[in-house]
Structure formats: C-alpha cells, structure tokens
Design a protein that fits this description.
309 residues; mainly alpha; extended; calcium transport
C-alpha cells in the first residue's frame, strides 16, 4: 500500500511539473507504464496540432495499455487504407490533370513529373518543415530534417520498389542517371552543410541554385532531344519519299487508299456497331477495378491491390 501511494504521489508531481514546463518529451512515457493514458492526455508534447485523430491516445487510451500490439496492428491496416485511397485519388484525378497540363504546355511527362508533380508533392513539406523548425525546442531541428530525408529515402526505395512490383516497366537510362547524379550531389551537399551543426546563407542559396541548374539541364536536354528527333524524322521522311518515287509506290499507295475507303463503307465502324451500355454493365464497370492489363497477366501484388481498390 505505501508503494502505491508513493507512485500516485510521484505521478501527481510529475503531471504538475508537466504543466509548468514544456521540456518533457512524449517518449518519456516508458517511465510511467502503469498510467500511460493519463500521461498521453496531459503531456503537451503528446498532443497533435494536425489531423483529426490522435493516434497516441487511440492506442494507449481507447485500445488500452494491455493491447498495444492490437492497436498498432489496426493502425498499420489504417495506414494501408490511406495509401490505397491516396493512390486511387491520384490515379483518378491528379495524374489525368497533370497529363492535360503537360499536353497543353507541350511538355514531356518527365518534365511535368519533376516540375509540377514535384511542386505539388513538396509544397506541404516546405510548410511542415518551417513549422517544425519554428516550434523546435532548444534549436533541435532533427525532426524537420529527419522528415525531409526520410521522405526522400522512402520515395526512392519503398515507392520505386512497390511500383516495380505492381507494374514492371523499362526506365529511360539517361534521365534516370541525370536525376540520380543530382540527388547524390544534393544529399552530399546537405551532409557537408549540416556537419558543423550550422547552415549559412551561402549554403542555403547554393541548394536553391542547384535546383535551378537542375531545371535548366532538364529543360535544355528536353529541347535538344526533341530537335534531334525532329531531324531524324525529317530525314526518314525524305528517304521514304525518295524510295517511294523510285519504286513506284505512290500509285500503289493510292490504290490501297481507295480499297480501304471501299472496305470502310462495307464494314461499319466499331463505335457505330457497339450496342448501348446497359445500367447493369455500367454499374459493374464502376465497382470493378479498371485496368488495361488482363487479370491473368497481373502478378499477385497487382491482383491484391486491384481487389482492395
């Protein structure tokens, strides 16, 4: 009994001290494992300023201290649902809009991805990093830079690996090598800048200038590559026209065109011969996952993602 009273007294003193100071961190909950829920509710560092759900109180209060493993399992499933929802939203709304913007501005998807898509993904990181640095205690900005580098590592490892498992593709070698070189240089520059624990104005401007140089190299390479392709296409067209004239292919082409016109008059167009889509068929296509790849040709991960989707 005296031990219980002593523990309650120490806990009360700790909670009173937590009101008077903001130096107590949320990770100190290990010292009060018997009353973790009260610690999570009363410690300012455990309170979340963003989001609608406080996951700490959900695990330690709603689920309980005895079932922490169950709470973490539920949160892992919820994280998977959020990832899938974000992917479906991006696939249905964000990516088509990005393709339209790239088509209107006559940009390649590679340039649109590293400019508009990068700005869209990086804008929240900018404001969250500024907020984390502004609210840092004692100049400790490890959370801000840890989040930035962690996001970069996550994108280059988990995201790229998952895409390769779900939808295998062939990458373009030169743009990929260019992006990897700039990424390595930027990461090494960040290491050099933060080695002494200080970031100067020249170093900050250097990172901005590095990104501007990256955009210049990217856009310049795009226009050079397009000019080379145009010259090759023009040369191939000239060679084809010369070969057609020398072998009399122009007349054969005209006869083929006339035959194709007569065939198109006899055989109706597929769009005209297709029956009207019924409500049941439209409902079925709305609920089933849509993809251009047949079900038998998909791998296991792609099938699971399609079913959950």
């Amino acid at each position: 009994m005296p031990d219980i009273l002593r523990s309650i007294t120490n806990l009360q003193q700790y909670f009173k001290a937590s009101i008077m100071t903001t130096d107590i961190e949320c990770r100190d909950y290990h010292n009060y494992a018997n009353n973790t829920c009260s610690f999570m509710r009363t410690t300012p560092d455990c309170k979340l300023d963003e989001g609608f759900i406080n996951y700490l109180t959900f695990v330690f209060c709603t689920i309980g201290d005895k079932l922490v493993a169950l709470g973490l399992t539920l949160l892992a499933g919820w994280l998977l649902v959020l990832f899938i929802g974000l992917g479906v939203t991006a696939d249905a709304y964000f990516c088509p809009a990005l393709r339209v913007i790239a088509r209107v501005l006559k940009l390649s998807e590679n340039i649109a991805g590293v400019t508009f898509l990068a700005f869209g993904n990086g804008a929240p990181d900018i404001f969250s990093a500024i907020a984390a640095v502004g609210s840092a205690k004692g100049g400790d900005v490890g959370l801000a830079f840890g989040a930035l580098f962690g996001a970069g590592v996550f994108v280059t490892t988990v995201v790229a690996g998952t895409i390769g498992l779900v939808t295998p593709f062939t990458s373009i070698q030169r743009p990929l090598l260019r992006d990897i070189i700039f990424f390595i240089v930027a990461a090494f520059g960040a290491y050099v800048a933060m080695y002494d624990g200080k970031i100067y104005l020249v170093e900050s401007l250097g990172f901005v200038i590095m990104y501007i140089v990256y955009l210049i190299v990217l856009i310049g390479g795009y226009f050079v590559n397009r000019r080379i392709k145009d010259r090759r296409a023009l040369l191939q067209a000239v060679q084809t026209e010369a070969a057609a004239k020398s072998y009399g292919s122009v007349q054969a082409t005209d006869e083929t065109t006339v035959a194709a016109d007569e065939t198109s008059r006899i055989i109706p167009d597929d769009s005209e011969s297709q029956p009207d889509v019924t409500f049941a068929l439209a409902l079925r296509h709305a609920f089933l996952p849509r993809t251009d790849t047949p079900w038998a040709e998909r791998n296991l991960i792609n099938k699971i993602f399609s079913i959950i989707r």
